Amino acid sequence: MDRSAPVHLLPVQDDRELAARCVGGDRAAQRRLFEREKRQVYATLYRILGSNQSLDDLLQDVFLAVFRGLHTFRGESSLSTWIDRCAVRTAFGYIRNKRGRNHLELVPETIAADDPSAERRALAREATRRLYETLERLDPKHRMAFILHAIDGRPVAEVAELMEATVVATKARIWRSRRYVEKRAKVDPVLADYLTGPLASPGADLPKEAP
């Protein structure tokens, strides 16, 4: 087989075959995997970390970890799920290493005086900034569990699996985080409005595509 062939010409029967091709050094298969999964990985990082200037670098870090560890993939879950776990571990490592530092970056938006929709978007952006700023104060494991469940919309059991924790421990982390966020919202009307708005629809603020 010509391994220099375009990605779209490479038929793949299942995830294990694609993984095997990647492990074997098939450049076209590696590109295929990256193009197939990059948006979901970017989405996971975005939801966990917010709009962050390090997202592009972290996206690369995730796929470095993926290709280094792909030989361990055995097909017990889908390849997408396996890669998702790599993304969660990468994001968690970033949170743990950056704890206590403000790393949320939101691009300023100019608001036209006669554009109420722009004003609403700006308010939503500010609420998002305040939410992630609040989450920065949490223990990394509590923050991760809360974001994966409340913002990313994952079931508790899935969050527990991704974080390699028990369901009981995961529920406790989510509950404590929610209590803390709600406490902060009592003295912050903008954050309080966000908790009953966008946060009620996980992923609503997700960008449409990765860069």
Short description:
The chain is mostly helical.
**β-sheet strand percentage:** under 5%
Provide the structure class: mainly alpha
Distance N to C terminus: 31 Å
How many domains?
2
If classified by CATH, what would the architecture of the largest domain be? Orthogonal Bundle
Major beta sheet summary: none
Query: Could you state the order of secondary-structure elements as H and E?
Result: HHHHHHHHH
Indicate the percent of residues in helices. Answer: 55-70%
Helices, by number, come to: 9
CATH fold assignment of the largest domain: Arc Repressor Mutant, subunit A
Shape: globular
The tally of strands reads 0
Q: What radius of gyration results from the CA coordinates?
A: 19 Å
Low-confidence stretches: 1-12, 100-113, 201-211
Overview of the molecule:
This protein has 2 domains: 11-105, Orthogonal Bundle (Rna Polymerase Sigma Factor, Chain: A); 107-204, Orthogonal Bundle (Arc Repressor Mutant, subunit A), CATH 1.10.10. The chain is built from 9 helices and no strands. The protein has helices at 15-23, 27-49, 55-69, 79-98, 116-135, 140-151, 156-162, 167-185, 189-195.
